[in-house]
Amino acid sequence: MTFDEIWDILSRKTVGIAGLGGLGSNCAAALTRCGIGTLVLADFDIVSESNLNRQFYFHDQVGMKKTSALTENLLRIRPSVVIRALDVRLNEENIREIFGQCDVLIEAFDQACQKQMLVETVLTQMPLTPLIVGVGMAGWGMNDSIHCRRSGNLIICGDEVSEISPSLPPIAPRVGIVSNMQANVALEILLNDGCKHGNITE
Known about the structure:
The chain is α/β, with parallel strands linked by helices. The protein is built from 6 helices and 7 strands; from the N terminus they run H-E-H-E-H-E-H-E-H-E-E-E-H.
């Protein structure tokens, strides 16, 4: 498949990203570079200086809403990408409304309780939508521990072990690896087509 053929397919696809931190912002940038047609982005946070060690923002954007800052950055990569950026706190009541028309949904939250809420909501309310989750990317090194595991329409990227803590912070390389792995899995799904009907290989 040529890049023009890939671009043609992806230009007609929509990907949702829940959370615009280290995983979500970098995954959005990767998908934008690949030619995704539409991104649905949701986050309620602002850019802080502490985010700059791993997130796709810049120093002069500190204090901006992440939705606004990321939209600005993605449009600098590719002005033709369609971005629906929602400054909203996601919950069980609004996830389906916001992401219901997406071909793929990417989970990119920081906190375990938020991840669990989104996974349970999507599996219950949107079972045919592929959900790509990031779990375990704290620290540095340990490249061999990072993997991709699939169970039906749920795909987990990361080492599934290393939780973020003061002594094991999130740092750009491993966060970047997992975020790009999420984007790569999304491409695999979108370019293989049919996966929204439950055809993801176990």
